[in-house]
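Recall the central idea of this unit: under ordinary conditions, the amino acid sequence of a chain determines the structure it adopts. In this exercise we apply that idea directly, starting from the sequence alone.
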Amino acid sequence: MLGKTMAKPRKPAPKRKPLKPAEQARIAELFARFEADESDPRTELDYDSPFTLVVAVALSAQATDVSVNKATQKLFKAADTPQKMLALGEDGLKPFISSIGLYNSKAKNVIALSRILIEQYGGEVPLERDKLQALPGVGRKTASVVLNELRVEPAIAVDTHVFRVSHRLGLSTGKTPDAVEADLMAIVPEPYRTRAHHWLILHGRYICVARRPKCEECPVADLCPSRHLFVRP
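Accordingly, the structure predicted from this sequence is:
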């Protein structure tokens, strides 16, 4: 008789060397400039409640914010509460989000999480990480976005933009999103942690783009250790 497969214990995170004063100053200046450019950055997803935020973020996986906003503009007029969403049902929800990737599984998750919110939380979104992450279709990244956007927790969700920008700016050498997140939480100065997530996303979306970063428009170009890779002398 075969026994249950035991989960492998997580390896303890390697100890990070303390940052040198010059590097601390560079990082502080980097985020100070982001703040000077945009003091209160927010998600570009449209929402008007914790519930619509959770749904929008869940729908945004492997999709653009623009495509999600186009879908939710009509969806949230029809169903902006767990009760209305559950009444809509999977078949009623799918036509609203059919333009978004993976819409079948996303519809299933949105209806399932709506039911849980009604049955377990009185129709309210629990703003505790463990409860959020237990909802269908809500992983660590989605929970981090929600908690950070609502200023509940200074979380940093690592998407492709944050991953790329963090490496180019010398903020992390982590090979996984979790490793990059741990690095950022350790080195971003405390006053900037609730906004760092959005600054890095927006910087990666509009300035430090994947193929041809716009170094000539970058407010932190002189602080970037990767600039020489993209700018000819």
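The radius of gyration is 20 Å.
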